[in-house]
TrEMBL record, chain A:
Membrane topology: Multi-pass membrane protein
Ranges that cross the membrane: 12-34, 64-84, 90-110, 155-176, 207-231, 243-270, 277-297
Protein's organism: Enterovirga aerilata
Signal sequence coordinates: none
Name assigned to this protein: Branched-chain amino acid ABC transporter permease
Primary location class: membrane
Domain of life where this protein originates: Bacteria
Automatic annotation (TrEMBL), chain B:
Leucine-binding protein domain segment(s): 30-358
Keywords: Amino-acid transport, Signal, Transport
PROSITE patterns in the record: TAT
Gene Ontology terms: biological process: amino acid transport
Name the record gives this protein: Amino acid ABC transporter substrate-binding protein
Family of this protein: Belongs to the leucine-binding protein family.
Domain of life: Bacteria
UniProtKB/TrEMBL annotation, chain C:
Swiss-Prot/TrEMBL GO biological process terms: amino acid transport
Entry membrane topology: Multi-pass membrane protein
Pfam families assigned: BPD_transp_2 (PF02653)
Family: Belongs to the binding-protein-dependent transport system permease family. LivHM subfamily.
Entry's localization field: Cell membrane
Organism per entry: Enterovirga aerilata
Keywords linked to the UniProt accession: Amino-acid transport, Cell membrane, Membrane, Transmembrane, Transmembrane helix, Transport
Gene Ontology molecular function terms on file: transmembrane transporter activity
Entry protein name: Branched-chain amino acid ABC transporter permease
Length: 326, 390, 290
């Protein structure tokens, strides 16, 4: 046990250092003379990663599938543009965006998290539609024409912010899933009845986790709002973003900290390559990759690769299940 | 595990970087134009026609020795009907493909998204199919120009026909989609119609709606005589079919997309007497237009749609600008902002905000299985009232 | 509101509701028996719509014949997908199974988008004309939809309630373990349920092509409404789904008349969240064992 804790601590430390180093390097890109095309790709990688980690924090760890993360990000984007246009400072505006998304998540959380996973999934699925309809009807949100950020910020600002959010979210997932509460949540995913028998208030834990996850999604959407600077409701609240939010961690490895990183790189890379090779088949191929990963790798590419390597390292020793999960 | 993941991340990054170097090394002798089109997704039907127009334009220019002796090349990518993809593609076209200027994408949100990127990079773009004037109204765009008649005037032609023909009819219903272009057109038409002494009611519907039966009941209940539908093609067809099914026979019926050839396929004989509005018609009797139609038919084997014509016109506008000011971005911008350039759509000219004011819509009507222009000189007389649904 | 207007709106709502009911019936059947939320259900509707479109425009066959053809095609495709893909995920955590059908949905959407582009298609063949009953006007196409939905819906419910295989399905819906213990061939029963439900979806697609326009997202849009209906009707309850579908169709017709269709949808979703909060087992549902 002691040994395990020690190894865990080492993993957290080294993992955190690696994440911080990567974050710093990526954030410095605008000043390193790389072309704006590469910067844009890195930016979108970070955007999808941040969204994927937000999803991962809730759905990856609890097994409750959310289709709302695109909508939550959209709420953040709207909130930040409205706040900035009201001349609030950037930090306060971003904070408002995170809180707005967190509050919206409570509607879903309170109505459906007492119930089984399917109810939650449906409740999240419908949020997308409901928010879209409401935004189109609300005059202060610009109606169907959407809203424009009055001040166009220099590109390095959303770039640095997005990298920071993605790095921060990855760090959070890495540390949280090895914390005491994190381990309980994982136990809950595997057997909710048993977990509540040993005194975990499953509903409360899930609501808090979903709220935190929504706040990160809101923050991500807010930064993207600054980047895009022009919002159309039909685009901001389209289901596509929710698909990316779950495809990225699922392909890479849901419930792990590094899976979504791998997933985001694969997703952005695949998209760019298919753009040239088979533009018509992009959606189909993303679907096929997702299907193959779920059917044959179960918990994603990163853990599968991890197993492969560990088996080699130990010359055929079969790793314990707990270890594979970790 | 940590170790391996990191390595594979670096591995793929290196692979991406090396492809770049190869592409960048190529020389750029031709004048390159870039386009991001929605070849898949929501807008792919129309975007395909736009692509054909661009390619035909490039082919025609090159067959005649290029622009100022330099051949033309058009690089086209698929934005999947998503603005986010459009943003990445704008950077890709500028950085990797070194294009001089951008031929516009299909939908308003994507035009808007790319325009933002191009304002930063100071690259000119023509919004080829961007009928939606609100893109230029919501913010000041210095580098993007509208290359299509403005959607604000969607109902204008029909109102003119009513003025001429519809003496006895007073009750008009305008149906609009809750989308910026459709709302702007409705807002333009309401006061004009009231000025004409008509009683107007406006009915909004949700984008993507299939069921218009309740709107039809409301029109019947309020005694509507004339209907003008300002939404996209698919809801317009759904509305028409449900009007037929309900046996609701207005005196005159107009939907903005009706001039499309596929309308006849969808509605069969019921299409008789339906009004539309057209940015361009294959029958327009100018030498330049005849040559375009003939070349298009030779290449693709069918009559071009207005999408292809607008795409061809966008190319011609760039060509005119380059011939006037040279292959230089600032010069092109200047020419597009001030000059008059003849294209197959008419005379390209933009106002202070970059909105198109040179091109205009014509009114059309289906008569005996063909869509004819019924406004302007040498036009056919409109059929009024519309024959009842058969 | 006059009485004839009331009747007309009621009829209009009934047509929309009946079509929705057939789609929702399939979703509920799969959810009840196979324990899968079939996110790909909408793509099977699209499949039926495109199949009918091709049959009508390429082979000059009546769209009325397209309906049974779409059903058979759907059932075959459904059986194949259940056997080859969905059954592989059986017994895995909920997230996995959900994602399998979700991935199938993305694949389907991608295939339709690239094969047919985003074009809106429709055909003018098939029944046309108007049927009048008192003051109520109903198009022959809508009447066809209504009648076919009635036949198919009643037929399906009879199969589930009155036949041996229906008994197996109901047993499976109640308890998987006991059903297996009673000697029910679980994989076969699941295969049947999936094939039947997908057949229904494809038939619904054929009907959609008759009264609407066809495009790659046509089923995707419809199935979201079907999910609303399934939740309202009590998940997995076939009768509940049918009743909720018809109720939603009628309520929407009236709300759209009084306000507009955006508000009608907003109201529907608010009703949905209220139902989840107050009556989590559906408006009509009882608590059926896990």
């Amino acid at each position: 046990m002691k040994v395990e804790r020690g190894r865990d601590l080492a993993k957290i430390t080294w993992g955190s250092l690696a994440i911080l180093a990567c974050t710093a390097a990526m954030a410095a890109l605008p000043w390193l003379g790389v072309t704006s095309y590469v910067r844009t790709l890195v930016y979108y990688g970070a955007y999808f990663l941040a969204l994927g980690q937000a999803w991962n924090l809730m759905s990856g760890l609890t097994g409750y599938v959310s289709f709302a993360h695109g909508a939550l990000a959209g709420i953040g984007a709207y909130a930040v543009v409205l706040a900035l246009n009201a001349d609030l400072p950037m930090v306060i505006s971003l904070l408002i965006a995170a809180i707005a998304a967190g509050l919206a998540s409570l509607i879903i959380g309170v109505t459906s998290l007492r119930l089984k996973g399917t109810s939650f999934t449906f409740a999240t699925l419908f949020l997308q539609e409901l928010v879209l309809l409401l935004v189109r009807k609300l005059p202060f949100a610009g109606g169907p024409g959407g809203i424009v950020l009055e001040e166009i910020f220099p590109l390095w600002l959303p770039h640095v912010l997005m990298i920071a959010v993605a790095g921060g979210a990855t760090l959070l997932v890495l540390v949280f899933r090895r914390s005491r509460t994190g381990l309980r949540v994982l136990a809950m995913r595997d057997d909710e009845a048993a977990a509540s028998a040993i005194g975990i208030d499953a509903t409360r834990v899930k609501i808090v986790l979903f709220c935190a996850s929504a706040a990160i999604a809101g923050l991500t959407g807010a930064v993207h709002g600054v980047f895009a600077s022009s919002l159309f409701p039909n685009e901001v609240f389209s289901i596509d973003l929710s698909i990316i939010a779950l495809a990225v961690p699922l392909i890479g490895g849901a419930g792990t900290a590094l899976g979504p990183v791998l997933g985001a790189v694969i997703y952005v890379g695949l998209r760019e390559i298919l753009q040239v090779l088979a533009p018509n088949l992009h959606l189909t191929i993303v679907g096929v990759v997702l299907l193959l990963v779920i059917l044959f790798m179960r918990d994603g590419i990163a853990p599968a690769l991890g197993r492969l390597f560990r088996l080699k390292d130990r010359r055929g020793q079969v790793p314990a299940i707990a270890e594979v999960r970790a | 595990m940590t170790h391996l993941s990191r390595r594979s991340v670096l591995g793929s990054a290196a692979a991406v970087a090396s492809t770049f170097a190869v592409v960048k090394a190529r020389a750029a002798d031709p004048i390159k134009f870039g386009a991001s089109l929605s070849l898949t997704g929501r807008f792919s039907d129309s975007a395909k026609y736009v692509q054909e127009g661009y390619l035909l334009w490039a082919e025609q220019v090159n067959a005649k020795g290029g622009i100022k002796g330099r051949p033309v090349e058009v690089v086209i990518y698929d934005d999947e009907s998503k603005p986010d993809t459009g943003r990445v593609l704008a950077e890709r076209l500028l950085d990797r493909d070194n294009v001089l200027a951008i031929l516009g994408p299909y939908s308003s949100p994507i035009t808007d998204a790319m325009a933002t990127a191009l304002e930063r990079a100071q690259v000119p773009m023509i919004g080829t199919i961007a009928s939606d004037s609100s893109i230029w109204a919501r913010r000041r765009l210095r580098w993007t120009f509208q290359g299509f008649p403005s959607s604000d005037f969607d109902h204008e032609g029909f109102l003119k026909v009513i003025k001429e023909k519809g003496q006895g009819s007073k009750k008009l219903a305008i149906i609009f989609e809750e989308a910026p272009f459709s709302i702007a057109a409705k807002d333009w038409a309401l006061p004009v119609a009231k000025e004409m002494g008509l009683t107007v009611e406006a009915f909004g519907y949700n984008p993507g709606a299939q069921d218009f039966r309740s709107i039809i009941e409301r029109m019947i209940a309020s005694g509507t005589e004339m209907v003008s539908m300002g939404g996209y093609y698919q809801p317009s067809i759904a509305l028409t079919r449900q009007m037929i099914e309900r046996g609701f026979n207005p005196v005159a019926f107009h939907f903005i997309q009706a001039a499309d050839g596929v309308t006849k396929e969808a509605l069969g004989a019921q299409v008789e007497g339906v009004f539309g509005r057209s940015s361009w018609e294959a029958t327009i009797d100018t030498p330049a237009n005849k040559a375009f139609v003939a070349a298009y038919q030779a290449k693709y084997g069918r009559i071009p749609s207005y999408h292809s014509a607008a795409a061809f016109a966008a190319g011609q506008a760039f060509q005119g600008a380059i011939e006037e000011k040279g292959a230089d971005r600032a010069g092109i911008r200047e020419a597009l902002a001030s000059s008059k350039i003849e294209t197959v759509l008419g005379t390209f000219h933009t106002n202070q905000r970059g909105q198109q004011d040179g091109y205009h819509y014509a009114s059309t009507q289906w008569q005996g299985g063909t869509s004819y222009v019924v406004s302007g000189p040498s036009a056919r007389a409109p059929l009024w009232p519309k024959p009842k649904w058969s | 509101m006059t009485f004839p207007l009331f009747l007309q709106l009621l009829t209009n709502g009934l047509v929309v509701g009946a079509l929705l009911a057939i789609v929702a019936l399939g979703v509920a059947l799969i959810f009840g028996v196979v324990r899968v939320v079939n996110f790909a259900h909408g793509e099977f509707v699209t499949l039926g719509a495109f199949a009918t479109y091709l049959v009508v425009t390429q082979l000059n066959i009546s769209p009325l014949l397209g309906i049974p053809l779409a059903f058979v095609l759907g059932a075959a495709v459904g059986a194949g997908i259940q056997a080859a893909i969905v059954s592989r995920a059986a017994g895995r955590p909920e997230l996995d199974v959900l994602m399998v059908t979700y991935a199938l949905s993305i694949i389907g959407l991608g295939i339709f988008s690239s094969a047919f582009s985003g074009d809106f298609r429709s055909y003018s063949e098939g029944p046309s004309g108007i049927f009048t009953l008192g003051s109520v006007v109903i198009g022959l196409r809508s009447l066809t939809v209504l009648l076919v939905c009635l036949i198919v819906g009643v037929g399906t419910i009879l199969v589930v309630q009155r036949t041996r295989i229906g008994l197996a399905l109901r047993a499976l819906a109640q308890s998987r373990d006991s059903a297996a213990a009673c000697g029910i061939n679980v994989p076969a029963a699941e295969l049947f349920a999936f094939a039947l439900a997908v057949g229904l979806a494809a038939a619904a697609g054929a009907l959609v092509s008759l009264i609407g326009t066809i495009h790659p997202r046509v089923g995707h849009d419809l199935v979201l409404d079907a999910f609303v209906v399934v939740v309202l009707g009590g998940m997995g309850s076939i009768g509940g789904a049918v009743l909720a579908a018809i109720a939603i169709g009628i309520v929407n017709a009236f709300t759209s008349f009084a306000l507009d269709d955006s508000w009608a949808r907003i109201l529907t979703y608010c009703l949905l969240y209220a139902t989840l909060l107050l009556r989590p087992h559906g408006l009509l549902g009882r608590h059926v064992g896990a």
